[in-house]
Amino acid sequence: MSLTAFLIGLAILAGGGCGSKPDVDSLCWLAMGTAAQVSFKTADGDRSQNDGRAVDDVKDAFEEVEKKLSIWRPDSEISRYTSIDAVSAEMRPCYAAAFALQERSGGVFNPFWRGNGKGPDLGGIAKGFAVDLAAERVLRRDGEKREFLIDLGGNLKVVNGSWKVGIRNPFGAGGIIRSITLTNGMACATSGEYERGKHIRDGRTGIPVTNDVASVTVVHPASAMIADGLSTTLFILGREKGEAFLKAHYPEATAYWVMRR
Questions:
Q1: Helices and strands (DSSP H and E) totals, the chain
Q2: Is there a contact between 28 and 36 (Cβ–Cβ < 8 Å)?
């Protein structure tokens, strides 16, 4: 299966910023069951060894999250879950964010919806968490020297610089229906069913969602993990209730809705 088959919701457009437009280099691979990509801007053909090292940092972060948070691996940390107090310190923010979103949404976002008695499933938030972890490691190594954009299955985060991304048309016609500019530290995620069919379930019932939302993209000023969880939650709630929920609990985030015709 090609990488393009995994692309969900968002596309990288031209590099942002002023003056002459730098080149954009990208490296793509498969990670956590979806397409992963690191894009970085270069000026006048300049290539840095740090670019390759940053990509290695991203790959390592994604592999670590998959190793620890995949419910499909019997040896993973989450497969042996007993309580949040027993999980590793580095993974704990992902659990905490999922449980907080579960409580605030009244179970709409529910990491326990499968009801298998074997602990949580953080699939609705783990990819965003992996992006945040990767961005943190890239920033630690590279500082603010290079402009990076990290993408894991449509969960995007800017490490440095200004990047323009586009919301894909969810109705099969192709193209971009809206562009968004993300700057230092900003993140976004999209939920929709036009790529994978009806896979989004209401955490209160376990039943696939049926509403008039075609896709919803959430932009957060600092967290791909929160954007990831919120995009799923808002898709389930629908636009009216979703906007009210966002205003009440995550006013720092912004949602872009595409409704069914």
A1: 5, 10
A2: yes
Q: Binning pLDDT at 50, 70 and 90, where does residue 46 land?
A: low
d(CA 31, CA 177): 27
This prediction's pTM? 0.89
- Residue 156 scores a pLDDT above 50: yes
Q: How far apart are the C-alpha atoms of 67 and 239, rounded to whole Å?
A: 35
CATH number of residue 241's parent domain: 3.10.520.10
C-alpha 6/C-alpha 37 separation (Å) is: 11
Local structure of 10: helix, strand or coil: strand
Number of domains in the chain: 1
3-state helix, strand, coil in the chain (%, to 5): 35, 25, 40
Containing structural domain, residue 173: 3-259
Give CA–CA dist 130/225, Å, rounded. 8
User: Which pLDDT score, from 0 to 100, does residue 112 have?
Assistant: 92
Q: What is the pLDDT of residue 2?
A: 31
Rounded to whole angstroms, how far apart are CA atoms 63 and 130? 9
Minimum mean pLDDT range among 80-89, 116-125, 203-212, 241-250: 116-125
Q: What b/e sequence results for 20-35 when a residue is b if at least 16 CB atoms lie within 10 Å of its CB, and e otherwise?
A: eebebeeeeeebbebb
Asked if pLDDT for residue 40 goes beyond 60, the answer is yes
Amino acid at 172: G
